[in-house]
């Protein structure tokens, strides 16, 4: 089944930037674009906010206006629109289930913090079954050129990062870009050592060679599947979030994996995804593990 790229729009500057990003990606991949807006009737005391039919018409008109510019810039792109009546989280999570990826806008917050991730965005990222891309207001198509890379974080065994690497390589192939695969490592505490792990480290020649070997093994099937994609293998000591952010200036897109963690106050995304989302100044794709 061919899935569309879906953009969630609400009329804000950041959602329009996300719509533009989604349209360009749909053209590159030869996919359709679906534009989704979550709408519910909201009466306001003392303000003539219209009746439900009037508000629904306003919502449809806003989506139509947003899509008009995209259709003019990409005349061959198939675009569909949906104004849906559920809450924003339910609407966006449902839309993501049928999409190749869901693209959302996120407000920039000064020169240091890249994304202001509200409760809706965090819930959607934690619950969506498909990749979610966050795009800042002011994102420019020019940032996708000039040799900038698709930066992807790799952790654990090859199976742990398969979905994340697949997304990064597919994106790089569609853009003619290179991939920088980043694996961060830290010194384990003494209690983490065991005779079996010590044997593996000894065979690899030490901790850093072991990490380089692990990254190469994780990348092998994707190099074979995408032989035209240039790959830079980046292994560095440090926390995963810090190492990824240290190379964010090279990135036209940052790709990280996530496992959602359930707590008493709801779903939370992992610390690496959380850190990158709040500090990277490029679009960020969060890919759920298979």
Q: Which SSEs are present, and which pair or pack?
A:
Blueprint: E1 5-8, H1 13-29, E2 33-38, H2 52-73, E3 79-84, H3 88-97, E4 101-109, E5 113-116, H4 119-127, E6 132-136, E7 149-153, H5 162-175, E8 179-185, H6 195-204, H7 207-225, E9 231-237, H8 240-246, E10 251-258, E11 261-263, E12 266-268, H9 271-279, E13 284-288
Parallel strand pairs: 1-2, 1-4, 2-3, 4-6, 7-8, 7-10, 8-9, 10-13
Antiparallel strand pairs: 4-5, 6-13, 11-12
Helix pairs in contact: 3-4, 6-7, 8-9
Structural features, described:
- The protein is α/β, with parallel strands linked by helices.
- It has two domains: 1-139, HUPs (Rossmann fold, 3-Layer(aba) Sandwich), CATH 3.40.50.620; 146-290, Rossmann fold, CATH 3.40.50.
- Helix content is 40%, strand content 25%.
- The chain has helices spanning 13-29, 52-73, 88-97, 119-127, 162-175, 195-204, 207-225, 240-246, 271-279, and strands at residues 5-8, 33-38, 79-84, 101-109, 113-116, 132-136, 149-153, 179-185, 231-237, 251-258, 261-263, 266-268, 284-288.
- The strands form two sheets. Strands 1, 2, 3, 4, 5, 6, 7, 8, 9, 10 and 13 form an eleven-stranded mixed beta sheet that branches. Strands 11-12 form a two-stranded antiparallel ribbon.
- A hairpin with a 2-residue loop joins β11 (261-263) and β12.
- α3 (88-97) runs parallel beside α4 (119-127), α6 (195-204) crosses α7 and α8 (240-246) packs parallel to α9.
- The radius of gyration is 21 Å and the shape is globular.
- The two termini are 18 Å apart.
- The model is unreliable at 45-49 and 109-116 (pLDDT under 50).
């Amino acid at each position: 089944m061919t899935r569309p790229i879906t953009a969630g729009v609400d009329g804000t500057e950041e959602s329009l930037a996300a719509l533009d990003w989604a349209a360009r990606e749909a053209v590159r991949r030869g996919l359709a674009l679906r534009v989704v807006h979550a709408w519910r009737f909201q009466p306001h005391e003392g303000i003539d906010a219209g009746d439900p039919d009037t508000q629904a018409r306003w919502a449809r008109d806003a989506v139509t206006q947003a899509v008009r510019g995209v259709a003019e810039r990409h005349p061959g792109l198939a675009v569909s629109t949906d104004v849906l009546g559920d809450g924003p989280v339910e609407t966006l999570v449902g839309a993501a289930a049928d999409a190749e990826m869901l693209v959302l806008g996120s407000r920039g917050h000064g020169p240091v913090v890249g994304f202001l991730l509200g409760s809706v965005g965090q819930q959607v990222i934690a619950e969506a079954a498909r990749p979610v891309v966050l795009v800042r207001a002011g994102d420019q198509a020019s940032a996708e050129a000039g040799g900038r890379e698709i930066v992807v974080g790799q952790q654990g065994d090859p199976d742990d990062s398969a979905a994340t690497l697949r997304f990064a390589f597919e994106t790089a192939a569609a853009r003619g870009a290179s991939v920088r695969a980043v694996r961060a490592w830290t010194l384990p505490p003494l209690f983490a050592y065991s005779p079996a792990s010590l044997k593996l480290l000894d065979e690899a020649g030490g901790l850093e060679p072991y990490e380089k070997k692990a990254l190469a093994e994780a990348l092998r099937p994707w190099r074979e599947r995408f032989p035209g994609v240039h790959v830079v293998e980046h292994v560095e000591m440090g926390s995963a979030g810090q190492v990824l952010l240290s190379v964010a200036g090279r990135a036209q897109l940052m790709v990280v994996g996530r496992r959602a963690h359930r707590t008493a106050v709801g779903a939370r995304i992992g610390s690496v995804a959380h850190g990158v989302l709040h500090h990277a100044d490029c679009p960020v794709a969060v890919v759920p593990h298979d």
